[in-house]
Design a protein that fits this description.
This is DUF427 domain-containing protein. InterPro entries: DUF427 (IPR007361), DUF427_sf (IPR038694). With 113 residues, this protein is mainly beta. It has one domain: Domain of unknown function (DUF427) (Metal Binding Protein, Guanine Nucleotide Exchange Factor, Chain A), CATH 2.170.150. The strands form two sheets. It has a seven-stranded antiparallel beta sheet with strand order 1-4-5-9-8-7-6, with no helix packed on it. A three-stranded antiparallel beta sheet has the order 3-2-10, with no helix packed on it.
């Protein structure tokens, strides 16, 4: 694994909220720490209501993780653009985050319960 990145199981139950609605719950989240950045919680897709998520055209690239694809959430009242991302084919050093989504904060929160 990259010297800059550590991944560990995030203990406890994690819930994904947007505009007051729950979009996912898991006991299988991962916490990814990269350098001195704030750790990011990654939630397995199978624990998220993916029917509300639409893949967008946005992508970004990280030399350590690979190419991230972005997702918007269609809520009851609005579309929250590019609020989640996923490394669908991550670099080998971080392969365990494949099949997981991370969230940008703001209108979407991932909270430990």
């Amino acid at each position: 694994m990259s010297e800059l990145i550590t991944i560990r199981k995030a203990p406890g139950k994690w819930v994904v909220f947007a505009n007051g609605a729950v979009y996912g719950e898991t006991n299988n989240a991962l916490e990814l720490s990269e350098g001195n950045m704030t750790p990011v919680i990654y939630v397995p897709r199978e624990d998220i209501a993916m029917a509300f998520f639409d893949k967008t055209e946005k992508t970004t690239s990280c030399p350590h993780k690979g190419t991230a694809s972005y997702y918007s959430i269609e809520t009851k009242s609005t579309v929250l653009e590019n609020v989640a991302w996923s490394y669908e084919a991550p670099n080998a050093d971080v392969a365990q985050i494949a099949g997981y989504l991370a969230f940008a904060g703001g209108p979407v929160n991932v909270e430990q319960q």
